[in-house]
Design a protein that fits this description.
There is one protein chain. The protein is an alpha/beta fold and about 350 residues long. It has 17 helices and nine strands. The strands form two sheets. Strands 5-4-3-6-7-9-8 form a seven-stranded mixed sheet, sandwiched between helices. It has a two-stranded antiparallel ribbon with strand order 1-2. The protein is globular.
């Protein structure tokens, strides 16, 4: 059976050409942003005022001709300002790409791009067989670039703002409590917590060997002795209801079997314990989500990273980046015996935060 193909609408065709050209431009400029970050160019430009390519070459020791081409592209993209033969990084862009300590810093979102793009061949196979690739399949550098995504939130928000929202937990940890960070990654959250509450004991759990190696290095660099890290496949969470606080930061939707993690958390946590969750702030339905400006990015990230991780083993849940909106999260935790669920008023561009209790 055949059907006639409708003739293309010239106006719509032009619109789609512009759309795809814009996406192609953005993809290539994003690679230039990564290059600029790796070479330290934004840091070199920050606060330097108007500079010529020759000035930047002298300051960085890099080749002037290559810098000139990069600067011109950045100016054409509107990232770097240009006037009368000189280039200048505005204070606003410096906050976004040069100052790693700012909550507004976006550099951490660019640095993983080469690793993700390098997995395209692996993704083609995933589309054929249904099995994705794990976090560790992306290589050891993935642990380094991923930790930058939440680092400043851990340093500036977790202890002074987020924890006090859990009634009584600060006093409990000050006196000495037990904390488990499930999906701990590179351990940066535990470093901040262990530094703030030296009388408490902290345990991080992750199945990524690269992340656990990075976590141990971060702990040792901080000189902390009250943190231990574990692979839960060999050293599971305690099952004796002894943990005062459990945290899961932006990881449940990445897991092959999040229900197993939730069940383990339920047996680990004290009857009066707390569970602090951060996960992607998605809409309950695709129809509600599609109009959000970040939605295309989040679905691309899902294919490149989150859903691939969740499908990295046979029978994986395959939730994807947007797979645990608030109603689904509530249903997941309540199905394993948690009875109290509260969304916390913590502003964030991507994530929602929840307090869960037995």
């Amino acid at each position: 059976m055949t059907s006639e193909t409708a003739a293309p609408d010239p106006k719509k065709l032009t619109q789609k050409v512009v759309l795809l050209a814009t996406m192609m431009t953005g993809a290539h400029v994003a690679i230039m942003v990564v290059l600029g970050m790796r070479l330290g160019l934004y840091k070199a430009l920050a606060g330097a005022g108007p500079v010529t390519p020759e000035d930047l070459a002298r300051a960085t020791g890099l080749n002037e001709r290559w810098l000139r081409e990069w600067l011109r592209g950045q100016a054409a993209a509107g990232i770097i300002d240009y006037a009368e033969g000189a280039f200048e990084l505005s204070p606003e862009v410096a906050l976004l790409l040069a100052d790693e300590d700012q909550l507004s810093y976006l550099g951490g979102n660019f640095l993983p791009l080469p690793q993700r793009a390098a997995m395209v061949d692996r993704l083609m196979e995933a589309f054929r067989i249904g099995i994705g690739y794990s976090f560790d399949d992306r290589g050891a550098d993935a642990a380094v670039t991923t930790e930058g995504l939440f680092r400043n939130w851990y340093r500036q928000v977790l202890v002074p703002t987020a924890l006090p929202m859990l009634d009584g937990i600060v006093a409990r940890l000050t006196a000495g409590g037990l904390v488990a960070d499930v999906g701990c990654g590179s351990g940066l959250a535990l470093v901040e917590l262990a530094r703030a509450f030296p009388k408490s004991r902290f345990h991080g759990y992750d199945t990524s060997k690269h992340a656990l190696e990075r976590a141990a290095a971060n702990r040792d660099a901080a000189g902390l002795t009250n943190i231990d890290f574990h692979d839960p496949t060999a050293e599971p969470l305690p099952s004796d209801a002894s943990v005062d606080l459990v945290t899961t930061f932006d990881c449940l939707h990445d897991m092959t079997h999040p229900e197993i993690a939730v069940a383990a958390i339920r047996t680990a946590i004290k009857p009066d314990g707390f569970w602090l969750i951060a996960d992607i702030n998605g809409a309950p339905t695709f129809e509600e989500q599609i109009g959000n400006a970040t939605t295309p990015l989040l679905y691309a990230m899902s294919v490149l990273s989150c859903m691939s991780s969740s499908l990295s083993a046979p029978g994986g849940a395959g939730l994807g980046t947007l797979g645990l909106p608030e109603p689904a999260m509530r249903a997941l935790v309540e199905s394993h015996g948690f009875t109290r669920f509260r969304r916390l008023d913590l502003p964030h561009p991507i994530n929602a935060f929840y307090e869960v209790r037995p």
